Structure formats: C-alpha cells, structure tokens
C-alpha cells in the first residue's frame, strides 16, 4: 500500500482520540439507530475526510425504504452504508437490502457499521451475486499513531478513495491469503524443493513427494485450507497458474534449444534405420 498522506495522518491523530471518548459513552447509553447515524456522519467527516454536507447523503431509496447513508463523490456513489444501533451486533443479513441495491446500481462497495465496528464489503458481480468482507475495523482498537492502523483506515478515507487504495488492497488479498499460500505449500514445485533440502538434512534418507504432501496437508496445515469452498477455489487457481507456468517454461526451453548451433528447425534427428 502507498504511503499515508500527511493530511490524513494528522487528521487521524486529532480525530480518533475524540471518538475513543464518545463511542463508549454512546454504547453505555445504548443510543438508538438514528442517534448512531448522527455519530457515523460525524466520523465520516472528522476521521475519514468526507464533506458531510455534500458527500454524505441519505437520498437513495431501496425498494421503498432508504439506505441509511451513501458516500457520493464526484457525482458517483462510492459506498452504500448500512448502519445499525451502536449496541447491535453486526450480522450478514443486515446487508441484504444494501447488497441488492448495490447490485442493481453497479455499486461495488458497501459498508456495514454500528459506529464502533466497520465492515468493508466488496460486491462480486457473479452468478449468483455475492459479496466478500474485505476488512473489519474496530475504531476503539485503532491507534492513530501506528502505520498499520493508519493504513487500515486509509481503505475508507477519502484520500484512499482518490488513489483507489481499496481496489489495490482487494486485489492483494485475492492473491495473497491463507488459502492461496496453503495451496502453494503443497504444490509439487514447493514440495520438491522441501524434499531436496530434507534429503540433505537427513543425509540422503529416502522420502517421497507424496509422503511430504500428506504430512503437510494432514498434520501441519489446517484442514479448512483445503476442504472449505475458499480452499477449493484457491487450489484450482494455483493449479491453473502452475500449468500455465509449466507450458511457458516448455516453450522457452524449446526456443532456447532451437537457437543452439546445429539445431534442426524440425527437432532432433531420427534414430530409426
């Protein structure tokens, strides 16, 4: 992720401590959804940098009712926001209307929040339509002076929107996650390297690739990495990559061999009489 703009960093240092005081009091009072929305609107302005008079709106109807909030920047809806009262736990079914509306309007990003917890969801325009939780932010746990927490808040901040940080981060977690890494760890190229090193380590003790793969899959890595739907998709993605990589290497080797002195453009000479 790119470096945090100085303006955002300074704003976080100033604004977060304020809401670290406000939010626990609001939760103790168990304020209702309408009052929670008021706090969220202030947070969108003071923490995340949006103009609450021009960029934060409630004008978007969803099947006769209204989405709690939306962020409209440069005449385009960038986020739909579904808000719940501060005392409510956030559940997936809270998103249903917002996801349906986002799908119909081609809006990729939805936020579900109770002002303390902020869930950032990416709508996936597939069949069937689905969504993925990209990040979960607990505002009360955010330290405005640490780079890691500033980068997390950058995902929603207006400065991050202008640099498309959310899409950059989404692309990263699609390709670097526990399922992808797990699939690579049990793939033949990686297991082959491990086998080679173990044979040197164990002074030539015989060990097979399948044996190592079984140990990794059944004794080291959690079963969900391979058995879950996400794991199966990741395994397919990694296998497709490895096949493409092997084909590319074969073509490169053939090309290099054809350039060697004396190489026939028709391949190696026949050994038949």
Question: Could you describe the 3D structure shown?
Answer:
The protein contains eleven helices and eight strands. The protein is an alpha+beta fold. It has two domains: about 160 residues, tt1808, chain A (Alpha-Beta Complex), CATH 3.90.1570; about 80 residues, no CATH class. A six-stranded mixed β-sheet has the order 1-4-5-6-7-8. A two-stranded antiparallel ribbon has the order 2-3. α1 packs antiparallel against α2. The longest helix has 30 residues.
Structurally, the number of domains stands at: 2
**Distinct helical segment count:** 11
Helix fraction by DSSP (H/I, runs of at least 4) = 40-55%
* Spatial arrangement of strands, main beta sheet: 1-4-5-6-7-8
Largest sheet features:
6 strands, mixed
The strand count comes to 8
Enumerate the spans where pLDDT stays under 50 for 5 or more consecutive residues.
none
Specify Rg, calculated over alpha carbons. 26 Å
One letter per element, helices H and strands E, the order comes to: HHEEEEEHEEEHHHHHHHH
CATH fold annotation of the largest domain: tt1808, chain A
Structural class: alpha+beta
Kindly estimate the percentage of residues that lie in beta strands according to DSSP.
15-25%
| Mean pLDDT over all positions | 87
Architecture of the largest domain in CATH?
Alpha-Beta Complex
Shape: elongated
End-to-end separation in angstroms reads: 64 Å
CATH class of the largest domain: Alpha Beta
